[in-house]
Amino acid sequence: MGRSPCCDKVGLKKGPWTPEEDQKLLAYIEEHGHGSWRALPAKAGLQRCGKSCRLRWTNYLRPDIKRGKFSLQEEQTIIQLHALLGNRWSAIATHLPKRTDNEIKNYWNTHLKKRLAKMGIDPVTHKPRNDALSAAGAGAGDGGENSKTAANLSHMAQWESARLEAEARLARQTRLRSGSGGGSSSAGSFQAAAAAGGESSEFGSFPSQLMKPSSSLGAVKAWSGGSAVWAANPSEPIGGISGGGIESPTSTLTSAAGVGESFAAAAASDGGSGGMMNDEGDRFRHLPEYKDGIIENSILPFLSSSSEHVPCLNFVEKFTDLLLSSSSGDRRFSDDDGGSRGEDYCEDNNNYWNSILNLVNSSPSDSPLF
DNA sequence: AAGCAATCCAACCGCCTGATT
DNA sequence: GAATCAGGCGGTTGGATTGCT
Fold first, then answer.
1. Which residue is closest, via its CA, to the C1' of C4?
2. Does the residue A145 lie in any domain?
């Protein structure tokens, strides 16, 4: 499909905007609205292409833009949403009022990504890097904590393998069921999954009002719920999910699982000071024991210091807290408190998925999450 | 104070998608 | 159905700024 450039580049100015140009653009948009961006520069008397004007407006001149330092809350939201959504900056931006996708992207690339990398976590997958894993293993001789961590890392890796397998199986099944009719977009697939899953007991762990077939949120739940169900009963096909070629949001929900491992790696690389609280909560609590050599119950004490608090596996939030505190010397996750941290933390933070889902729920109905 | 390195961030680029012709 | 257009998105770049030696 051919397409002409958005503008004739000859004679058009590039580079930083001058205050005069800003003023012209601002004045024009305030009076007329932006209308067609392509036509705007000529009407506004600017020697810029429409695309450049649009970018300047959306990333800088728009009156509802908040500038300056990101708050801790914003950082946490970004990390959580990145674990959930991957590099979908515009989607993430819809949950951070007054922040632009460009600003969030820059902030991620310059701050948060580096913080993750520093902790031995792959910022793309939110999983521990191999060197971090081996570092954890190498540290096993140092003492019991490290060897425990390494062993648990292994369990986490096994769990991730099982989960990926589940994803693949789910995709295969949905493809088979839908034949060639399904779309390839994850949005459609998840919506189909949500619609087909409806409010069946398969998704019973989620509030029914969140299972609106048309909502992207329902799709998230359908996927994560379905995954949990499968994990609990690996031999059983995931019922109720149909639709074309489900494509797991690998970098999103997968990441949430990966984050668990990442946290372990971070804990290991941090001298074993990290407390493991997995926020996989809603998923893990469905699988107290996954035999078959994949998940053992030993994972649960690892995820939570108290098995009585298994439902409160608010991992990602804790993980993000750790990230956020890693640069400020916050030692709240040290092992010094004899294991009560998990309970304390659980008291402070309820179900992670609920917070994410609430976050998503609070977004505009046309939020481009999926 | 000077030189260099690291960091930040506005802006650009190319690609994709949906709407229109 | 193909071609075109407009808008949007994510990745990347490069100049400016800051920090370090």
1. A3
2. no
Same domain as A98, residue A130: no
Burial class (CB in 10 A: 0-12, 13-18, 19+), A181: exposed
CB of A50 within 7 Å of some strand C atom:
yes
Closest nucleotide over all strands to A106 (CA to C1'): B9
Residues A110, A113, A115, A119: is their CA dihedral positive or negative? negative
**Same domain, yes or no: A232 and A268:** no
Query: Is there a single domain that holds both residue A78 and residue A224?
Result: no
Q: Which nucleotides of B are covered by protein (CB under 7 A)?
A: 7-18
From residues 153-182 of A, list those within 7 angstroms of strand C by Cβ.
none
Question: Which residue range(s) make up the domain with A288?
Answer: 116-140+252-358
- Count of domains forming chain A: 4
For the segment A168-184, the average pLDDT, to the nearest whole number, is: 42
Is residue A149 in a domain? no
A171 and A30 in a common domain: no
Distance from CA(A368) to C1'(C2), angstroms, rounded: 29
Amino acid symbol at A237 = P
When pLDDT is cut at 50, 70 and 90, the band that residue A84 belongs to is confident
CATH code at A29? 1.10.10.60
pTM of the entire predicted model: 0.53
As ranges, strand C nucleotides with an atom below 7 A of a protein CB are: 3-12
- Tell me, yes or no, whether A31 and A9 share the same domain: yes
Residue A115 (CA) to nucleotide B1 (C1'), in angstroms, measures 33
Mean pLDDT for all residues in chain A: 53
Q: Which residue is nearest to nucleotide C14 (CA to C1')?
A: A15
- What is the residue whose two structure tokens read 């994803």? A167
Mean pLDDT, residues A216-229: 36
DSSP string across A177-206: HHTT-----HHHHHHHHHHHHTT-GGGTTS
| Burial of A146 (C-beta count, 10 Å sphere; 0-12/13-18/19+) | buried
Q: Report yes or no on A209 lying in a domain.
A: yes
Helix, strand and coil in chain A, % to nearest 5: 60, 0, 40
